[in-house]
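Why do we bother with holo predictions? Because pocket geometry can differ from the apo form. Keep that in mind while you read this record for pyridoxal-5'-phosphate.
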Amino acid sequence: MEGKKLKLSSRVIHSGAIKEQYKSVTVPIYQTSTFAFENVDQGAKCFTGEIDGFIYSRIDNPTVRVLEKDLAALENGEDGIATSSGMAAVTTLYMALLGQGAHMISTDAVYGPSRGVMEDHFSRFGVESSYINTADPANIIKAIKPNTKLLYIETPANPTMEITDISECAKIAHEHGILVAVDNTFCSPYLQRPLDLGADIVIHSMTKFINGHADIVGGIIVVKDPALYKKVRAMMIVMGCCIDAHQAYLVMRGMKTLAIRIDRAQENAMKVASYLEKHPKVEWVKYPGLKSHPQYELAKRQMDGPGSMICFELKGGLAAGKVLLNNVKVAILAVSLGGVETLIQHPASMTHSKTPAAARLKAGITDGLVRYSVGIEDVEDLINDLEQALNKI
Ligand SMILES: Cc1ncc(COP(=O)(O)O)c(C=O)c1O
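The structure, written out:
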């Protein structure tokens, strides 16, 4: 049966396995750095692209190609470029699309290092960037300059859960000849497909939901336009930030359960968010599944579910938050997200600590904000765990 005719929850299991001679059900791991040529002419034709053929695993690898094609199919893109980490995907994208004198507009609450690498390093090469609340499209129009080449949005944003309207952004950006890239890490293609909404490029930290088991780091860039795809792939090859075949295999193993993991995690998240919202010690909760989320309607329209990331602040701010973070016993105090295990962290001192304090506050990342990535444990255990930790405040 053709992969595209199946529902996404089936496609994550049955998409593109290698048609290999022994009919293995899982994708074989091609643990090799290099591939033999039949003769000089065949080797030369692989290099010119006249014929398809694997050359060297930094360029491409049969195991990795299955993962790239699978994710491109799930995101409805032309093709994918897997990378050694999510940040490798981000920097490869910046390198491919931005040159001296270029300007990028980005979501202010973007993942800390996606901003840090731009402000601390790309700035040294004459690349400018502006960070705005992309949830309000009027801000994008105001930020556009004649040299703006890329609109880079993260939605829902990490960690504020602010939601940006992808279709609206694509419309505005394309009217000005600007490319749109979306970091879709918080949703995975199971909950949101930015290319279908008009974006040109999607990136993921596969470390998170796509792999789902907190045992690898990896990233991917999926591109809609074939010429743009080639340009970004060429950059990944010279940067040398390819994913390893074994790592790619683990991602594909994790990806098979993407749909059931997310279904369970977001069912848990809805219950945890509702519990927190009613708790007298909680100042506010932001979760796209709650009616109190400022973009609840947009989330319903744009996403196929609210996901399993929650942020909140306790009455008593940072001091109270620290007591909670230090006393949870089921949730693990650790950065990262999107795995089967519930993780809790403090963005201002952890994932976003390198973002200057004023910029952090402007982006809504208050000192007391707690980020909670809901896993697939029994939800009663998660709520009891929060309750006993909140009782210590
Ligand atoms: C939204 C988002 N994008 C990108 C990254 C970077 O991914 P990685 O840690 O795999 O390099 C992260 C990591 O937390 C993230 O949360």
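The chain has two domains: 8-30+61-255, 258-390.
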